[in-house]
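ligand=shikimate-3-phosphate
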Amino acid sequence: MTRFTPAPRLVGALTLPGDKSISHRALLFAALAPGASELRGLGTGEDVRATANALQQLGIPVAWQGEDATVQGRPLAQWQTPSAPIDCGNSGTTLRLLMGLLAAAPGLEATLIGDASLLRRPMARVAEPLRRMGAEITLSETGTAPVHIRGKALQGQDHVLPVASAQVKTALLLAGLHAAGATTVREPAQSRDHTERMLGAMGADLTVHEGEIRIQSSPLRSLGRVQVPGDPSSAAFFAIAALLHPRADVTVDGLCLNPGRIGFASVLERMGARMLTGVQRTVFGEPVGRLHALSSILRATRIDAAEVPACIDELPILALAAACARGTSVFSGIGELRVKESDRLAATARLLRLLGAQVRDSSDRLEIVGKGQASRLAGGRFDAGPDHRMAMTAAIAGTVGGAAIDVEGMESISSSFPGFVDALRSLRGAG
Ligand code: S3P
């Protein structure tokens, strides 16, 4: 159990570890491009390590030095059948992206497993469209991992996804990159597009036209040497902490500012946040820059389905912001939260009630009556279970609220951001 107490102030400048989504993709795509790629500043969590370890089991050399890795890529046809099941740990991205890739590797056979949380998450959403391309994939009776794959020669297909999911989209694009003919993917709302940007920068035959992504088999150029930008999903915790705290001024530099990831900034802007983002450069198609957040008085807002993909991982911490705002906020179309590392919709409602906020929840909606200011939040004990984002949200509540919070399950932060507690401590002033 870790105790988080109200901070006298939150002031400072941070640079954060590399973005988790981009790190997974940089490792996987570098592994497909013949030659060496030098990846600098990768995400430091166990999820990213799980992708690197999987690649090693598949015969791809990955040499680590601190947060940097050199990957010796080779075409998928040369990847090897692993001698044991691949353990994806807590990482849905590792498992789902590998499904798309390995399904398209004729002769290769693999079993993908994970921790108890990952074994509960839905995998049919990836397996079913892949099967329509000719994939041979077996799931458990309930449509979850273990996933068993026998690689096959696939046929390109047109896919219309029922849910906006960058993981599903990427799995299908990776399969399409190795299939005969063209593959297209259309989503109900646009999910994060790191895959499109990075594969495009590596020379893949990929086009995006009026929301439809089209890909064909094509060779990839090595990524060369790249610096992974900082993770905006990690930054969101410190940005919102700063907005909610009455004596705060926080800057984060070197951040990925992809519009598909910083939907939280637009939501907060509507809420009256004193927060600015500024793009300073572009790295393999990704805008990179700075975020600056100051103590603010927030008002309630509405988030609906179209806006959800761009802030999907930030909804719990945005819900905390809503609990401190003036007025009643409504988050709708958020049913996907139920199938994340935990049932995040239920966990968020449970945390906000503990904090003394009035919350109404239904299958895909949260209504939050704000308390007007963070200092009115109550304290207590919160069990975050296996969910890193719930643990970090509770930690921020204890830091900006009116009373201490004891968080159980803090060790889960190792999956995305092991340095979170130290970074938070560095912002706390002495008086
Ligand atoms: C991710 C996509 C999102 C997100 C997850 C990372 C990715 O999941 O929640 O943390 O890297 O593609 P879905 O694709 O299931 O929405």
